[in-house]
Predict the 3D structure of the following.
Amino acid sequence: MPPPRSQSQIDRPVPLQGIWSGTVSFSLVAIPVQLLKAVEPGRVSFRTLHRQDYSPLERRMFCPAEEVPVPPEEIVRGFEIAPARYLPVTDAELESLAPERSRTIEILEFIDLKEIDPIYYDHPYYLVPLKGGEKAYQLLAEVMHRTGKAGLARFVLREREYLVAVVAKEGALALITLHYHEDILPAGEFSPSEAPRDLAEESRIKRHINQMLAAFKPEKYADERREKLVSLLKQKAQAKGMVEAPEVEAAEAEGPADLVAALEESMRRIKEKQ
Amino acid sequence: MSRKIVEIHGKRLSLANLEKDLYPAHGFTKAQILEYYRRMAPFMLPHLKDRALTLKRYPDGVDQEHFFEKRCPAHRPDWVNTAEVRLEDHESMTVCLANNLETLMWVENLASLELHVPLARVGSPETPDALVFDLDPGEPANLLDCTRVALILRDLLRPLGLACCVKTSGKKGLHVYVPLNHPEATFAATKKFSQAVAAIMQKNYPELVTAKMAKDFRQGRVFINWEQNDPKKTMICVYSLRAREKPYVSCPRAWEELEGLAGQDDPEKLQVLSAAAVDRAEKLGDLFEDVLTKKQQLPHL
């Protein structure tokens, strides 16, 4: 059985792994950079177990018409155009649409950072300079910070093309993927139509706001449910509340460890090819 | 009753009932059966040589009663090669060895349509010279499913340095043979190895493969019968006819042919009838020759 999850895994994951490297470029400048994750949602995830014996459960695809489990090679994608009417789309067709992997974050325009409505912000990343790019990186970060500008770029990550903003942040550069304009739902429909101005009410609200004014200190707030959950898990771990899944029957019949390892390696290669 | 005396290698043999149709639904007489085995003999005899032969006899045709004969019939001609095989309780029995054409013709004159042999030869009954995966499809799984399993097995074993050969069972399944031809091979090892392979196949292709004998698990799946790797078990000999409605043969197939047929939807396309089997052997030679000659050792045991 695998070793129990360590405390650090319960506490907080350690991110900062490069997920892409290439260059940030505009006009004649090309700065080699690496892209790092900037956030790691601290979701505590659970396995589903069989209550009777704590075996971890597997998901299988099931065909309700034939009442049989469906193996992966029999699964195709279908776009539902009406109930029970589908347009099947093959992997090859999807692949043919995938944008070419890019090695550059090509800045197309510089815009005022303040102009970007936060509703467009999707996912933030850090940009870290790679060897030979430090100087230009620093310079760009500094000028952008001073002028309050952001670079707008197109960028391919994991077979999807994103619109991104390259922004300066405390002498460093960050990259934020943006939602496409067509994905933003219009707010106009539910903002109330013009109401008569009530000056007394307006100044009362202003006063309240001023009274509650503070510096933005996000560290003051934490995901309280998560903290409670983590302390619950720690309590359970200390109280020896751990249960063990039974050995799977097949494991007994698997055979000598070296042979099983060699077969598993071979099987992995077969599946890679498929 | 019609009789015909023939002489093979100076041995006289009296053949009976030559015109009797032993495959009545298809039309295939005893004379044709003898002729089939005569022409197949150059390819088949090396596989039969020195193996305790089990005769599966159909004296009145494939749709009538049949019986197994493990003991060599006492009425055998004195030139038939035999061997003593030890049984449990210090007993032994005399078995036939189809080591030459005349013996093969004699057993076929007994309407032994199917010839079954063990994986070891009589001189070294505990030393299998091949490991076998007997792929048996549980309905509605069919020969095409077996083909898929066989191709995966081939690809699985290749990185372990093991080549293998495949033949149709002539019934519903396929037999994948891993040649060993190694004096240190044991059934304990081939059983352990084949069981591990069957287990990992079942683990990775649970909807396609089962390694369990129980009928419930076999429905719609290919049963990898690894328990055939046993000194007491026999396999249908390569090139033997099968007692079905038509004279299908347990016939070797090239891997390329399996690859070509895997994408099609007619499972019966892989089957080979007697005439085609002879043509193939005479044209392609023995596609199962590696099983006799290739020396391989099972790794990681």
